[in-house]
Amino acid sequence: MKATVKWTDGAMFVGESGSGHAVIMDGSEDLGGRNMGPRPMEMLLIGTGGCSTYDVMSMLKKSRQQVIDCRVEIEAERADAVPAVFTRINMHFIVTGVGLKENHVKRAVELSAEKYCSASIMLGAAGVEVGHSYEMVEFDPAA
């Protein structure tokens, strides 16, 4: 896997993945940026959430769960010192579907956390306290 990150101006960088997709990262205006994109540490959180959500959805599809929506709300805390590493991350999955079976949702979240999500497992191995929780919402077509 490869990627490149190129400085463009002020506190702005363009990252390009090996698959050819680009994303702008930028700092806040008070730090010389123009606030044109997420901060690099925010990208790390987004990537971790994407990695885990991919796992959860893959397992729910394989178990034939009728998922209408799945999102993960991520909260993180960082150290007050330099480097300002993540010290705690909590990922809360909200899975909306029709007739979802709790044992399938619970197992998908657990397997992502314990076995499959390379990003969250790597952060946990580095000493970050990574928590996972979930809730299920029954889809209401009238809503």
Question: Which terms summarize this structure?
Answer:
about 35% strand, single chain, GMP Synthetase, Chain A, domain 3, globular, alpha+beta, N-terminal domain of TfIIb, 6 strands, 3-stranded antiparallel beta sheet, about 140 residues, 3 helices, 2 domains
Task: Please explain how this structure is put together.
- Helix content is 32%, strand content 37%.
- The protein is α+β, with helices and mostly antiparallel strands.
- The protein has two domains: 1-37, N-terminal domain of TfIIb; 40-138, 2-Layer Sandwich (GMP Synthetase, Chain A, domain 3).
- A three-stranded antiparallel β-sheet has the order 1-2-3, with no helix packed on it. Strands 4-5-6 form a three-stranded mixed β-sheet, covered by helices on one side.
- It is globular.
- The mean pLDDT is 96.
Instruction: Report the count of strand segments.
Output: 6
Work out the count of structural domains.
2
Alpha plus pi helix count = 3
Mean residue pLDDT: 96
Low confidence ranges: none
The helix/strand class is alpha+beta
Strand order of the largest sheet: 1-2-3
Largest sheet: 3 strands, antiparallel
The portion of residues forming beta strands comes to: 35-45%
Dominant shape: globular
The helix fraction, in percent, is: 25-40%
CATH superfamily of the largest domain: K homology (KH) domain
Briefly summarize what is shown.
It comes from Halioglobus maricola. The chain is α+β, with helices and mostly antiparallel strands.
